[in-house]
Amino acid sequence: MSRFWNKLVATLDPYVPGEQPRIQNLVKLNTNEHPYGPSPKVLAAIAAHTNDSLRLYPDPTALVLRQAIAKRFALTPEHVFVGNGSDEVLGHAFHALLKQDAPVWFPDITYSFYPVYCGLYQIKFRAIPLDDNFKIAVKDYLPGAATGASGGIIFPNPNAPTGCANPLAEVEQIIAANPEIVVVVDEAYVDFGAQTAATLIEKYPNLLVVHTLSKSRSLAGLRVGYALGHPDLIQGLDRVKNSFNSYPLDNLALAGATAAIEDEAYFEARFGWSESEYSYFVIAFQGFYAFGLLSFGGVIDKIGIDAVLADMRARGEKV
Ligand SMILES: Cc1ncc(COP(=O)(O)O)c(C=O)c1O
Which helix (H) or strand (E) covers residue 268, if one does? Predict the structure, then answer.
């Protein structure tokens, strides 16, 4: 506490990032990073851009990266916004789109950064309980489900930390039933067990889908996330971004992220793991988010947890 802080800063309850211990051979479970490194093409692209051109500012519009992302989702670059990790993208979404007169709605067990953004941007929120199976119940997100209107809706699919995914048809029900407010679907873990709502972008102008390169693309250290949505929503995010930091992605992040998005073969191969490899990943998720239990539990059951742990110990990993 300092007498120089303004009143808002004194009231903040900031997010506490997961610890990043520097211990050799540690199997790190706490922040859901990928157990494998990024595509060799990503490393080559970063190396190729590590030169005198770093004296120049990066492209503030990140056009090449936005083009690559747009191509992957059969959209246009005007449908794509990029930021310094999806945390930054989500922060701008709260600021630009979810800050309304009525409270934003999100699940009461969910990504713990959401209430933090609400504190920073002074946004009212309503935390909606999960059902008895720890799932998001669609009926609770329909207009009239609670007293008072909703100013916007945000939820991860799959949800974190529960690991439960809602089928695309249920996600669509929530979006379709709330045409007057923005629905943000945070798909940080979509590649591990859910259907993306990106296919609905052209149908619903109130839908924003947020992705990260930190998890399935093995690039948590590069800090790149993006949002897909109607160009009107993207322009709103751009207005906030350009009132805050015009160059959130540096030259190396732009080069590496573009290579990652373009290397579909490497991405697919990482999801075609052997059973044993897959199991290590399951364990990583079990450690913090209980993901494996819910999404890939069958793989662990098949091999047997003791066999997997013995194998990991034999490889010198501390488990
Ligand atoms: C649900 C969810 N959304 C977003 C993020 C942020 O990811 P990043 O800022 O690394 O893109 C995380 C990180 O763990 C997460 O769990």
Answer: helix 264-270
Q: Give the separation between CA 59 and CA 254, rounded to whole angstroms.
A: 9
Mutation to probe ligand 1, out of 29, 84, 86, 289 (largest number of atoms < 8 A from CB)? 86
Task: Sketch out the chain's domains with CATH numbers.
Answer: 40-266 (3.40.640.10), 273-319 (no CATH)
> Considering the entire predicted model, what is its pTM?
0.88
Which residues, other chains included, contact 186 with Cβ-Cβ below 8 Å and sequence gap of 6+? 86, 90, 111, 154, 155, 156, 157, 210
Q: What is the pLDDT along the chain (319 residues), one digit of tens a residue?
A: 999 999 999 999 999 998 888 888 777 778 888 888 999 999 999 999 999 999 999 999 999 999 999 999 999 999 999 999 999 999 999 999 999 999 999 999 999 999 999 999 999 999 999 999 999 999 999 998 888 899 999 999 999 999 899 999 999 999 999 999 999 999 999 998 899 999 999 999 999 999 999 999 999 999 999 999 999 999 999 999 999 999 999 999 999 999 999 999 999 887 655 555 555 555 555 554 444 444 433 334 444 556 656 666 776 666 6
Ligand 1 proximity of 32 Cβ (cutoff 6 Å): yes
Look at residues 289, 287, 283 and name the one whose alpha carbon lies nearest to residue 109. 289
